[in-house]
């Protein structure tokens, strides 16, 4: 409280002008009667209860059903609803915690940077543009009511109410008396209720404003939702004296072996307490231990005139188990406050990690080891409950991160729910804890708010509140001052104030160089990373290391060139780390019939039912909005991994596996920091044409962190069938099960080509030869069982029958267009490469021929000039009497090739009748993969229903590719099937709809299900890219160059 009063005094001259404004439009008022923010803990009656854990009889949850009234503007709110005589019997019920928009009140608004109200700080209720949602819903107010009675044993206790999160500003009343007010929706607000409690039933009232001046600092790229969205608890403390807060630090010695444990505690006692001889004791338990390894006790507490005291305890820990993300060893601490007679007044348990974070030499150090941070950004989002995320979903998020080899998570862009930090402590994730500060609508680095003295208090309060709340978490490794906010005096003051609370961790902020320990490169390409470090050589010690807060924008079908980013991370010693944008799609489960959002019977459910779809910005009539710019997760809103999840897992794996010069030897480079490779189980397997031929286990190699070792893999040099493609896999598995994965889980895997497959030309089988004739612009090749018809001008195969059954629903013809991914839209993909969209359809015939070759084979050949770059194309079919057909497509660049845009793809398209299909293939899989996102997709034999072969992105776009395909079969259904077999590895996409459907639909559930399979068979397809969604392109090496010859050859065989 003293820190707030000091800041208020310093800012007093600037506050006077705001005296007439309402609290929620006054940046000088961030709280009224709010208690100082403290660390997250639960008090228990005594140390026995604290040791046992579980529910505490000193805490009562007020989660559940509350009475609720929603008003679209402040003047329509029920002004006196907090009075005991007010009749709220006609009000609805709402679930707390939760956002009211997710329960049918008002409108969810998704916008990235644009404020959803008229920008005129600190006002939020001025007339906005007419099309804004706010024009009609000026500043909705939610009025909440509920009653409670104190449990037995709480008589005489000091009782507080703790709101873990309310957005964006709120007042609290108890029994008709105003208790206080608070902003900063992502940090807790605690109020003392003691003097206003009554015997029996108490009436609690909360009034929440959707917008406040605080909303100017909450302009994060997310759904703008409102209400009491985190837990609400009553907390009882001893009225005689209580532990108000504590701070635990561990200071490791120079060898990072022994540590000094320091505990600083803040106590308060009642002014009339007769017993002043209080003591604080601490019991320390080793990880998993039941008996204390240390028992500490303070001298009798010395109180100041206000009844407050600061107590310090310390203890030397000898060779304790250290905490790291790899080995999250948590010690246990139980603090107990006692009176002079030894009676226990209250006890507080806490789990802490013995660890030391350092920023030095431009690097990030944990326990003396330079650590590379491989991370993700995580918004708090649930598809049904919005900003409120239940504990089970949070745990699932953390487990999925660990399984993806993520070791670092940024709480973008605000302090997360307290339970998230407990999970990161337990499972092992380094956390960048980010203050709830973003004013992106003014422009990143703007001084409009960042250098405005009227806003200094609000900035400082947000930073300090976060540090005070989370200072004891082992996982919190870096403090962030916010995201895409301002620069100037407010940010400088913010860091200084935060450091006064905690100076044991490094600090980061990308928008003000004066406040950060590391430099940020915003969504860099690989070239930009290399340029920075090349220039850094000239800066010497004055330069800063790099921590990239956001990279690899995962919007839709994305995640290309991750391997290159990780290689750069390890190539440059001062490249500290990076975090993918972002973790989870911010999609909302919306009823297809347009009915209001509602929690229903199971609000924690993540999956959709058949009456719902994934909604994004604009789907609720919200304006302004940024459409599907919120759909950019590594995983879906239902927590199902997207295809790029598996690429993240592979790119981030903690062991680099490299085969040496074609030998049966693999070099293992240990990228762990605290784990020897001997702690893993090493298994190998060999497949021949996708079928396992041998498998075994290696003796565990010894390689300390940072070291490399070469190991011979027994099965990698065995003789195999000379006509088979032979591949070997080496994997590193967990010997024991951690909390986030089963034993045997593979933390690193790599596949190696041991023997390539020789591609042999097709040999015609005996059969009745095909006759060929040309008439009426058609070329027809046929025998008694087989019929092929080509359009003599276009060269398209327009009909293909076997035993009278037509296979084709659409012709087989050249096609060079690939629909735009959402991540490619902003870089002008369609405009730059658009000449190829109709290039094949607009091809100019140059000549054709058709003749009968040996063994009854018919050769039909077509030459074309393409309307792009004076290039040309030849298409040759070899039709066999057995019904098979070989397709040979060749491309020759023209004289203007240097000016010709790259091809979106090079290949053909066709549609096969019948959509009830199973897809089987030998190639990369099982998940979708593209040329720049395929390392995680090993070559093998796979099978999938067509509905699962397709990737269902919330916003339809190009999808479903499988690269490295040796053969693929469409099986099942009433219609004949098809086998595709390449004379080189193919890229194939198969959809139960066509390209026009895909390009003209904005919601996945609206894609029609056609009665055919639309098939793209390609030599090469443009990569997905993914550095960002607003200009950066796919790396050149993952495009399809048009200035060089290209060739595609494959055989199609009917399956009868």
From TrEMBL:
SUPFAM superfamilies: (Trans)glycosidases, beta-Galactosidase/glucuronidase domain, Galactose mutarotase-like, Galactose-binding domain-like. The keyword Signal applies. The keyword Glycosyltransferase does not apply. Keywords: Glycosidase, Hydrolase, Signal. Residues 1-18 form the signal peptide. It catalyses: Hydrolysis of terminal non-reducing beta-D-galactose residues in beta-D-galactosides. Pfam families: Bgal_small_N, Glyco_hydro_2, Glyco_hydro_2_C, Glyco_hydro_2_N, LacZ_4. GO terms for biological process: lactose catabolic process. Residues 779-1053 form the Beta galactosidase small chain/ domain. Its EC number is 3.2.1.23. GO terms for cellular component: beta-galactosidase complex. One of its GO terms (molecular function) is carbohydrate binding. Belongs to the glycosyl hydrolase 2 family. This is Beta-galactosidase. It comes from Pseudobythopirellula maris.
